[in-house]
Amino acid sequence: MKTEEALQRYFPNLANMPDLKKEIASISSIIKMDAGTVFLREGAYVKVIPLLLKGLAKVYKEEENGQEVLLYYIKPRESCIMSVTSMINNETSKVKAIIEEDAEVLVIPTDKALDIAKKYPKWNEFIYELFNIKFNELLDIIKILTFSNKDIRLLEYLRQRASIKEERFIKATHQQIADDLGSSREVISRLLKKLETQGTIKLELGIIELL
Fold first, then answer.
1. Each residue of 69-106: pLDDT tens digit?
2. Which of 51, 72, 122, 197 has its CA 20 to 30 A from that of 97?
3. Phi and psi, residue 26, nearest 5°
C-alpha cells in the first residue's frame, strides 16, 4: 500500500489537506511489525512518530518493583501520544510500547514531524484530539487499577479490552492479563475461574468470552 493511499484510508482528516498529505507521504514509510516487537523503549529517545494502520499496540509504564502496568492501547487510525510528548520536549521516553498484534505502521521521522507541526494546524488538531482520547482512556485504566475489589478490576479490564475490538471474545493468556494489571498469573487464573463460576465469562484455551 502506498503512503498516500494509506493516509486517505486510515487518516482522512490529514489526507483531506492535499499539501499535508503530500508532505507526509514524501517523508514517511510503511513498515510491518510482528507481535512482540518493542518499538519504543523506556529511557530511549523517540526516533519516529508511528501512525498505526493495522494491528494493535499497547503502552506500558514500568514500576519500581519491575512490574509493567498497562496505560493504554494504540488502535488503527491512532498514534502514540507519549512518543509525541517525548519528541516535543526532546526527552527520553518514560514508557514502553509493544506490538500486541501483527501491525502495519506508517512512521514519520521525529524531525520531520516537528516541521509538520509548525506548518500545518490540521496536524496539531489531530494530535490534540488524540491527546483527549488517550487521556480519557488513561483515566479509565486508573479507575480499573484503583478498584479495591479485584473481581471488578479484572472484569472492567476485560470489558475495556473487548470494546477495543468491538467483540466479546478476548484472545489472551492469563500471564498477559497479569502483566497488564501488574498482578500474578496465579491470582488472575483464580479470579477468572471465579468470574466463570458466576456466569460472567466463559473460559476456553487462550480465549475468554464475555457473557
1. 888 899 999 999 999 999 999 999 999 999 999 999 99
2. 122
3. -75, -20
